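Issue: copy button drops trailing tokens. Both records pasted manually instead:
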Amino acid sequence: MITQQALEKYLWGAATLLRGLIDAGDYKQYIFPLLFFKRICNVYDEEYETALKESRGDLKFAEFAENHRFQIPKGAHWKHVRENTKNVGMAIQKAMRQIEKANPDTLFGIFGDAQWTNKDRLSDETLINLLEHFSSQTLSIKNVPNDELGQGYEFLIKKFADDSGHTAAEFYTNRTVVQLMTLIMDPKPGESIYDPTCGSGGMLLSCVNKLKSDGKEYRSLKLYGQELNLMTSAIARMNMFLHGIEDFKIVRGDTLKHPAFLENDELKKFNIILANPPYSIKQWNRQEFEKDPYGRNIYGTPPQGCADYAFQQHIIKSLDEKNGRCAILWPHGILFRDAEAEMRKKMIESDVVEAVIGLGPNLFYNSPMEACILVCNKGKRKDRQKKILFINAVNEVKRESAFSYLTDEHIAKIHKAFIEHKDIEGFAKVAPVKDVLSHDGNMAISLYAHIQENGKTAEKEVSLNALLKNWQKGSESLRKHLAKMIGELSTGMK
């Protein structure tokens, strides 16, 4: 059995063969499909040998479809592709399409749309080198169990994100933040988990891993995801299979335009939603959302220049009415921007907001922006109703080299504060909904929870919006007072 360290070295070694030939952001288009291709062929061979042993050498029995998770058509096996020395890209592409066709219910479109036949991009020599590199290890389940290969796959996702710069956010969310969000959601066996912008599927798998680590039945989880990007949605599906997860539905498509999961012509409801939606999208169909057939504009229609509250409303509308809960990673602007004030107030009035957790900078991938987690719950406990917990965890972040992350201690501290749901000086504040509404629905964390500096509680500078609103209120109050005084003086002089 290959060690985890050796596996990671082997996987990254494939990517290094492409260095200088294609952009780092495109590595995933070629490496992930080849890895998956190699894996399913090696697993097929492993299943074949098992069936052969069980049938005492019956070759026909060993080929029966019932003995294999996936079908590999004749001529489409890894070993057959490896025999090619010319037009290698064509052979790879043909084999992948044949496999997709032979497994229409599970693998259709899973290999993506990489340009395998473009020799100007990848020559026969380069592709042969890739095939030979992958052939140096056997990726059977016996040699590389699902959990180990899944970890290796996640390692690659992280490495590709590191190398791809600005495109990373398409498919990768900081895994320490995902871990915190999963802890807060506390998934239970049998629950449905949904990510409307699922990227590589990391949030869905985090719920699986949580139950695994707790020794609970994880196979009963029902996993759903939608992802706009074709290659990224394929990566998410491969990610599930390589982790040994088979009961899932990940669909490619535009969640706002064409939500994939419906029941009786309405949005399907889920127990848990975890998401890191693309923020501040300007190119979206605002007019269609205004007359949304699924009634997702429950609080109003967001401005054309920012679709954040379109995603937020889609999420809340998709929550189970009894116990639906969500943890959504957003930039702080969603908490106080004036353009969304009325929608935000309606959301607060509906009493679905359970907690707002402010995180430190640089936790969005390759972005210095501060992040926040907006926690909503359709089934808030009685003692939490009409209340919102604010946690100011801006200082709970560790920076190493160019990367920021939450340590285990940071995660434990924030999670404990969420569970206890009480005031913690310099860190957490439980605010009545009416108090938040008195600030015109402004949920800027610094208005409620103040951080500690040098052992003393100090107010962080509140948002410009909040200061402006307070000034406007004070000015209006002074104007009315002066008008009253002038009126009284005028009456006295008559």
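Record 2 (pasted manually too):
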Amino acid sequence: MEKILIANRGEIALRVMRSAREMGIKTVAVFSEADRNALHVRYADEAVCIGPAPSAQSYLSGEKIINACLKTGAQGIHPGYGFLSENAAFARQVKAAGLILIGPSPEAMEIMGNKLSAKAAALTYNIPMVPGTEEAVTDIDVAQHRAIEIGFPILIKAAAGGGGKGMRIVEKASDFIEQMDLAVSEARSAFGDGSVFIERYVSSPRHIEIQVLGDNYGNIVHLFERDCSVQRRHQKVIEEAPSSVLSVELRQKMGESAVNAARSCNYTGAGTVEFILDENLDFFFLEMNTRLQVEHPVTEMITGIDLVKEQIRVARGEPLSFTQSDLKIKGHSIELRVYAEDPANNFLPDIGNLQTYIIPKGPGIRVDDGFEQGMDIPIYYDPMIAKLVSYGKDRTEAIQRMIRAIDEYQIIGIQTTLAFGKFVMQHEAFVSGNFDTHFVSKYFLPEHLLIQENEDEAMIAALIGAAFIESKNGNTKSIDINPVLSQWKKNRKE
């Protein structure tokens, strides 16, 4: 492939383009009218407008994307994540047009895109499953009976889709019918499919996922795990690699299970097998994401493998250039998703203009973003601004570097998750590694950010006072308060 089209926007589009450029491959950007001046449009060798701002009329239009590909002479399409990245129908359209999708086969997408068929495939390799239904549940009476058999609390989950939609926790039998109706309604609204299944609710789970990579010759490897347990609204905010709770033996078992899950659907390219880990460190298959994950940078940092380049090589028909035994974990990496959200207001989106936007730098810091100072955060798409990634020789250094990077990251004009990220990094539960997916509900209150802000104000006042006393005493020694002041102001909405 000499030219590829990136069917996405923002930071992931730029991320793919940079690796492609290093491989000597030309890139084509697609953009909506809202993204006309976006960084990925300027970075690409060519750019094609594919429609109005709403995603349904632009980034979700497979026909427009394929036409843009044919028009520019691109041979392949990289879908990034989100949008059409896990759409089997789109994958078939790409194939029918004589183009290459840089991703798995439509068949693999189809199997793993439905939680029930994914579980069935994984069961062929005896991968551990949370006790529950093996088929979609439609009859409420039957469903309630099965739920009682499993034992409360139970989890009702949409068979299609993800992101926490169509998911309901039911604590007792008397709430079942109401929650079942709500889950079915939400699943139908979000995915056009009201089918749900039931499984035992693991009360204190860790969310552990394994990165896998397969080629067209039957070679499949895993690139170790990511711990994605710090979440809000069932969606990840902070991820790290490796996990602080996995032993060498458990890592090997989970890695082998992930490889087998990929093998069950003849998987090619980069994918992620997700597990939950209970309080006894028993793991259970959750689902498989048939695309590149948002949090893939932490895996790249600890393995030294560029996953985008590997995706492209596999799509070109090349075998994997390394084996499982070649892969080693080196150091520790943490990612904070920097969202345009207000953590003090239930993490609601807070779009606006990036009046000040200065990214952190220095050893062990990586920023994948798609914005620059003066740009607006559009209302039409996911509110993620950037992925802030730290790397250290061990977990302690990675945490320290993340705190330093958060302090250096200056964003004025909107509220962000930066202050929340600092709260997590400094919390005893996270530092000790003793936390689960309920971290936010257990430990975080909006007041914590106000306390943090007040402490910063007090420090500034103390420094100003000290400077005043020094000057009154005739001591001309200067006290620089600007770094502290900039840290305090960086997340203030002006």
